[in-house]
Amino acid sequence: MKPMNKTNYSPFVLLGLSGSWETKVTLTLTFSLLYLGIILGNLFIVFLVIADSHLHSPMYFLLANLSFNDVWVSSTTVPKMIFDLLSEHKVISFQGCMIQICFIHIMGGVEMVLLMAMAFDRYAAICKPLHYLTIMNSKRCILFVVIGWVTGVIHAMSQFSFVMNLPFCGPNTIDSFYCDFPRVIQLACSDAAKFEYVVAANSGFMSMGTFFLLLLSYVFILVTVWKRSSGDLSKALVTLSAHITVVVLFFTPCMFLYVWPFPRSSVDKYLFIADFAITPALNPVIYTLRNKDIKISIQRLNKKGHYNRFC
């Protein structure tokens, strides 16, 4: 079969999430509520950090950027997934598929760098408290965000350039609810084996390398605290537990898919629901549940609202 004309690629068919009509209705309602929670929860954190001067610190600056990024991460896939659950024809154009892949990997790269920046922030706060404001100055915080976006773009484009030049001659069915490099490369009518190494060397190495660097940084912080406080790790564990939870939730699906980039089953699409829907919805809860500053800021906002109402 001859490859399709590169200027006239056929659309891709997404198989999406299977199940009975009742299951699909339930999933539609569930993911709609999750997406609403993602938008409201994460944008509320961004608003809170901007509005409350008491939260104008490096940690909350990075947290606001992470929340803003989570909104975009989920928005690349979840609305389309919700729409397709009740749709008979789950189709995405070639251009739409490429744009989705591009945004997924740009935002994924930004998220990884932000998580590393937040780990570095906790290291500076716990291990170098007297020099914290010097280490985590405003210029360095902005630099972390810029590095995140530059890393995300380079990370996405380095793989995107390969996919754009692949010839596709069918089939055009993707066993997932979103487009991504491993699934799309499988549809190419050229030898895709070499592209497996490109994905593994790029996304796989980046995911696994960042994950282990983050774990090592947390271990280093805990060991440092343990030595200084004669074995009392309770405060450090409370501080780091939210970060560790988010890191595990985010990186587990990434490593599963990209370290072995040619999936033979549909398990990966269910795992990636965690990255696109569950983790962005849980992040506002995880980062605020034990955070006294956020709780006080919410109380302060409520009091200000009551005061303005009666004045």
From TrEMBL:
Its main location: membrane. GO terms for cellular component: plasma membrane. The keyword Amino-acid biosynthesis does not apply. GO terms for molecular function: G protein-coupled receptor activity; olfactory receptor activity. Residues 41-287 form the G-protein coupled receptors family 1 profile domain. Keywords: Cell membrane, Disulfide bond, G-protein coupled receptor, Membrane, Olfaction, Receptor, Sensory transduction, Transducer, Transmembrane, Transmembrane helix. It holds the Pfam family 7tm_4. It is a multi-pass membrane protein. The chain crosses the membrane at residues 32-51, 98-120, 141-162, 205-225, 237-258, 270-289. The keyword Cell membrane applies. InterPro entries: GPCR_Rhodpsn, GPCR_Rhodpsn_7TM, Olfact_rcpt, Olfactory_Receptors. SUPFAM superfamilies: Family A G protein-coupled receptor-like. It is found in: Cell membrane; Membrane. Belongs to the G-protein coupled receptor 1 family. This is Olfactory receptor.
